């Protein structure tokens, strides 16, 4: 009983073919296929009764599991020469982490020499120097320093030393980053490199547009590129072809973006890591394990292809305490819910709780409905008209005297008078701060809130807003573009006193700490990485002024479950877990801040009061 592993070529790309012998037991084959399938979201390239053809990454990532399966079921594995070399390379990569032969020893003199390589506009801090030295002791490295600590500067210094090293001879920098982090890399080139820098003269070319336009750029004289994760998915072969002809330093910025092993972007990145000979790989993230410690696995496999993270430290981290940055003052603000808001909240919450009593486990049949209910609760807590407007648009609210219509009518009236309690509080606080000459950053998850605040309610403060529908723009003079809005808000002399944004568009890659020291959270999601990074837009190296974070949460009767409190507790646990993993007491302290403050319970509303409120809208 045996399986044969060989390399095959299809569509100008190499794949692995796994073929079983005729006497191979069917239940063992099914278990083997199941094990390999665990690592991929899409179907196999080809699957027949006696063989499968798939991405190399899918096999290489389960080598250890495959070995265990062979030992238990007693079958042989026969590899072609190419397959044997590929597997051996993976095993060697696993051992590189502790192999001193891959060290590049960096002295203080080498760091001083960076200015002769064009890195003269800033001086690295002692912590950046420490991180630089430690990173280059590793074949590939991870910089998990806090947001705003200067990871981009350390990466550019690393790249210049790799260019100058006679053994590495790197000639290309290739960055993968979220689109909203492109500005940060532009700023990094501008802030760190002088006009004599060869890297500065070469520039960093954005790989945007069609397949053919990207192909043209990669085949031109350009050497340094930046591409977003989504575009990378369809450009793997073009990038692999470019790397095969150059000496590439490959960087993943915000590397937690590949934390989900089965996601398409993770598969695309790992596929490159397994089949392309980069000279060096680096990953950057201030929040590498935002949900659970296992989030680290895919990032580690990108650096050192193999089965799983082996527990050895492969990262550097500079903490806020080391940088001397003041801990932001986080204050939980409890606000009252209106009667129609409580009625709608109860109407959505009670059926959810009833369904969970009958079946408390999440499964395929109920997951979508539960997720939808939870999002609705967050919307209602933030601005309830978000829910009823959607219901009206979809025809779920019928005009007439019924609870749905009556609640909606009351909420529309509330909106016309300034919005929900959270919306009104955020506006009043922004105006209070503006009178003191202070700018405010307001965060919300929902597009309607963002436009409602930015376009209308805070027009008197010349507010700007950014969400996914606001285009990046080619330059910062392009009106209504994301670059223009950020530039306007960052201008200390502008009358733009408020920026309203959502996490997906602004939580990463934007520095606002020189002009803004106050942030208000109307609502938050369960994503700890976005929350932590949004805080770090105003808490960064280069400004030590006091930073104030206001988190708005609704006061809800004790008999009801509070979605704001649920989000709060979830974030608290995730931040604490990541703090323990990274040995960063600052994160642990931040998780404690989440538990401070008066519980958002409205003791004045009894069960009978709740029933009265609902009856009011029934009539």
Observed structural traits:
27 helices, six-stranded parallel sheet, single chain, 18 strands, globular, seven-stranded parallel sheet, 619 residues, alpha/beta, 14% strand
Shape: globular
As a whole number of angstroms, the C-alpha radius of gyration is: 27 Å
**Contiguous uncertain segments of 5+ residues:** 97-101
Biggest sheet layout: 7 strands, parallel
DSSP helix count?
A: 27
Helix fraction bin: 40-55%
Calculate the mean pLDDT score and round it: 84
Strand content: 5-15%
Number of strands: 18
Give the CA-CA distance, first to last residue.
Answer: 75 Å
What is the SS-derived class? alpha/beta
List the strand order in the largest sheet: 8-9-7-10-11-6-12
General description of the model:
- This protein has 27 helices and 18 strands.
- The protein is an alpha/beta fold and 619 residues long.
- The strands form three sheets. The protein has a seven-stranded parallel sheet, with helices on both faces. Strands 13-18-17-14-16-15 form a six-stranded parallel sheet, sandwiched between helices. A five-stranded mixed sheet has the order 3-4-2-1-5.
- The N and C termini lie far apart (75 Å).
- The chain is globular, with a radius of gyration of 27 Å.
